[in-house]
Write a structure and sequence with these properties.
Order of helices and strands: HEHEHEEHEHHEHEHEHH
Strand order of the largest sheet: 1-2-3-4-5-6-7-8
Distance between the termini: 24 Å
Number of strands: 8
């Protein structure tokens, strides 16, 4: 385990050591999950090599249920639990940190800054570590794009995503997240990611549609620092290990080891 004071330092130290990381996203939707399922998913994620558990979803999140899910997860894993909230209902005092994020390409100011204003006093009251992040929805966007009223970035216009990402960096955000959407048929193309990572100096997170190790490896070689998957941990532990191994191979490439 990396010795670090904050979750952000933990992430950055592991990135320096490994080149790239895998995070597992668990959706705390009561219609899909309970404490026992969350425990199993989190334990499988840690055993497979995930560096952190992200907790968040677009629909059906309530704080009491979220608290119970996080308590269950923290009973079985040592890696950090980071909130990935779709709304203020996605804040829990039980987590280790929160991605304090702005959906930069939303047409609704609520998701750009309104929810953040409402959530900030809660984050302070709970003593949560806030990690600023620029969240950018890439087409098709799926549920995250629909709920967040985003104007998804066209997949053939990476220069637009690059400009959003650079704005996030200049606004002082610590990470940029390129999100194609949970359930997307395909991942964001590696060349799209390469165009963005060449422009910014902060780590780029990529999620949505990533289902195999080869895709994960190519995204890391294109510059992605963190790969996020969700549904794959529910479907196959072996597939998750394959993805994590692909990320590790890509990380070696980024560090010039191979």
């Amino acid at each position: 385990m990396v010795k670090a004071v904050t979750v952000y330092e933990y992430i950055m130290e592991r990135l320096r050591e490994e080149g790239a990381l895998h995070f597992t996203l668990i959706d705390p939707d009561p219609s899909k999950i309970n404490a026992d399922i969350a425990e199993d998913m989190a334990k499988s994620a840690e055993d497979s090599g995930s560096a952190a558990i992200m907790i968040g979803g677009s629909i059906g999140v309530c704080e009491k249920f979220l608290d119970d899910i996080i308590d269950a997860i923290k009973r079985v894993v040592k890696i950090p639990v980071i909130l990935f909230p779709g709304n203020i209902s996605g804040i829990s005092r039980k987590a280790d940190a929160i991605f304090f994020m702005s959906l930069l390409n939303s047409e609704d100011l609520y998701f750009v800054i309104g929810a953040q204003v409402l959530g900030a006093p809660i984050v302070k009251m709970y003593g949560l570590e806030a990690i600023p992040m620029g969240y950018i929805i890439i087409e098709p966007g799926e549920a995250a794009g629909f709920i967040g009223r985003a104007r998804p970035i066209p997949i053939n216009h990476p220069e637009i995503a690059s400009a959003f990402a650079l704005a996030a960096q200049y606004l002082g955000m610590k990470f940029v997240y390129l999100e194609r959407g949970s359930g997307a048929r395909e991942a964001i193309p590696a060349e799209f990611v390469r165009r963005v990572t060449k422009v910014v100096d902060i780590p780029v997170i990529v999620g949505g549609g990533i289902r195999d190790g080869k895709t994960a490896k190519e995204l890391v070689k294109a510059g992605a620092s963190i790969i996020v998957t969700g549904t794959v941990v529910e479907e196959s532990k072996d597939k998750l290990k394959e993805i994590v191994n692909g990320i590790k191979e890509g990380g070696l490439f980024k560090r010039g080891v191979r």
